[in-house]
Design brief:
GO biological process, one term: zymogen activation
Pfam families: SRCR (PF00530)
Organism: Bubo bubo
CATH superfamily of the largest domain: SRCR-like domain
Number of helices: 4
Helix content: under 10%
Low-confidence stretches: 1-16, 446-488
Keywords: Disulfide bond, Glycoprotein, Receptor, Repeat, Secreted, Signal
InterPro entries: SRCR, SRCR-like_dom_sf
Number of domains: 4
Distance between the termini: 45 Å
Largest sheet: 6 strands, antiparallel
CATH architecture of the largest domain: Roll
CATH class of the largest domain: Alpha Beta
Length: 488
């Protein structure tokens, strides 16, 4: 790695978690800084190593960590240094998830600021799906984010994206803007990776910005880390279903309740949406969910109803509450009313969690047309069937043509619904489709998947275009390798 001393790059900033790399010659190297008391503060290099650097590079979408220059390699910070030391395992998705503690000597002098150098090359990110390891591919070039056209886009190209993002291995490479249409410039077209490149910009393709595409052809990627469930920080406890119960949040590795002071429907809507439990239902009179934990973490919650998570709502500071014991907030979401859902199944695939989508209406099973069918719709199907995360959302009757009625068309899910029947559609049986347009879904299955390709001797070759064209992975359990689409 060569460190330049010329003009400095614009700092790479992650606004959601208030972390940046400053004073580097590329956007993905520099002095590590976080927000402290309203201003940027440099981190001390005491105890700083590759494990911590890996988390920084991952959080900023900068690929893999290459080195950790110390002793203010990127210059001294303009202001304060952060008073804590950081200890990461290296697998965390954000620096804020690592353990911290006050430094032993209580101070860190200028000249000891920590630095990070991440993988070189134009940076990539996966957006519009809620996981940093799945979504529409965007690449940062010439100081602008742009998309990638799906011409010639395949698993080898996706493999490079997953490697650059440290997201595991590529599971599928969907085209056709299945993660929504981007805007602005389309940077790459006719991408042709060998699968061994370290960054997407190392791959062959047409010159930057030269293409014959439109955003309806934006490429996407699903990496294996996207199907590993995120650690839960919100739950509904002591109910008859995961979508009903007492609201509890995880903070400082301890579950605590939420006080019901000012608790209303808008607050409950945020909880139901965050948990993928659909809509808020009126609570039945006299419904009780037990005494709850001794700790009350949140009080005076005030949501607008549109927040992506309960912790984004206005509240008292963590742990500050005047709530009496038993005065806990609770929620009943539509996801708990399982009997009201229109039944869904996946058929003619390798297991119950992959196949052609069929719904049961008016005493008949029928298919779903693939007009506007995408990963958000597939996400709801996988959730309703308790089949894990989405691997792909194939169109064009990939698992064969169905028979009988085509019940749904132009499905528009938000991704937070508990069942496909909660999504917006044109209405039952209203369509202009043929069975050659039947929609399909491939889910990860309802078991944790371990991707150990180097230990498996067998590979599953899926139907062409399914997303497994170049041999899908098998799951390894001890000495046994099995098709990962089948529950073990």
């Amino acid at each position: 790695i060569r460190f330049c001393t010329g003009a400095r790059a614009t700092p790479r900033v992650s606004t959601a978690t208030e972390l940046r790399l400053a004073n580097g010659s590329t956007p993905c190297e520099g002095r590590v800084e976080v927000i402290h008391n309203g201003t940027w503060a440099a981190l001390c290099d005491e105890g700083w190593g590759l494990s911590e650097a890996r988390v920084v590079c991952r959080q900023l979408g900068c690929g893999r960590a290459l080195s950790v220059p110390d002793k203010s390699h990127f210059g001294q910070g303009p202001g304060q240094t952060w008073p804590n030391s950081v200890n990461c395992v290296g697998m965390e998705t954000a620096l804020s998830a690592c353990k911290t503690k006050p430094r032993g000597n209580g101070t860190c002098h200028h000249g000891r600021e920590a630095g990070v150098v991440c993988t070189e090359g134009d940076q990539v990110r996966l957006v519009n799906y809620g996981s940093r390891c799945a979504g529409r591919v965007e690449i940062f070039h010439n100081k602008k984010w742009g998309t990638v056209c799906d011409d010639n886009w395949d698993l080898l190209d996706a493999e490079v994206v997953c490697r650059q993002l440290d997201c595991g291995q590529a599971l599928s490479a969907p085209g056709g803007a299945q993660f929504g249409r981007g805007d602005g410039i389309i940077w790459m077209d006719e991408t042709n990776c060998t699968g061994m490149e370290n960054t997407l910009s190392d791959c062959l393709g047409r010159p930057w910005g030269i293409n014959n595409c439109y955003h309806g052809e934006d490429a996407g990627v699903v990496c294996s880390d996207s199907i590993i469930p995120e650690p839960a920080h919100l739950r509904l406890a002591n109910g008859s279903h995961r979508c009903t119960g007492r609201v509890e949040v995880l903070h400082q590795e301890e579950w605590g309740a939420v006080c019901d002071h000012g608790w209303d429907k808008q607050d409950a809507e945020v909880v139901c949406r965050q948990l993928g439990c659909g809509r808020v239902l009126p609570a039945m009179e006299g419904l009780e969910f037990g005494a709850g934990p001794p700790r009350i973490w949140l009080d005076n919650v005030n949501c607008q109803g549109t927040e992506p998570a309960l912790t984004k709502c206005q509240t008292n500071p963590w742990g500050e509450s005047s709530c009496g014991h038993g005065k806990h907030a609770s929620v009943v979401c539509s996801g708990s009313a399982v009997s009201s859902f229109v039944p869904v199944r996946l058929v003619d695939g390798p297991g119950r969690c992959a196949g052609r989508v069929e719904v049961f209406h008016n005493d008949k099973w029928g298919t779903v047309c693939d007009d506007n069918w995408d990963f958000t719709d597939a996400k709801v199907v996988c959730r309703q069937l308790d089949c894990g995360m989405v691997v792909s959302a194939p169109r064009r009757a990939r698992f064969g043509e169905g028979q009988g009625p085509i019940w749904l068309n132009d499905v528009h899910c938000l991704g937070t619904e508990a069942a496909l029947s909660e999504c917006r559609t044109k209405g039952w049986g209203v369509h202009g489709c043929e069975h050659g347009e039947d929609a399909s879904v491939v889910c990860s299955g309802n078991h944790h998947l371990s991707w150990h390709r180097e230990h498996c001797s067998k590979l599953y070759h899926g139907p062409p275009g399914l997303g497994f064209d170049s041999a899908f992975l098998y799951e390894c359990k001890g000495l046994r390798c099995r098709n990962s689409l089948q529950p073990i």
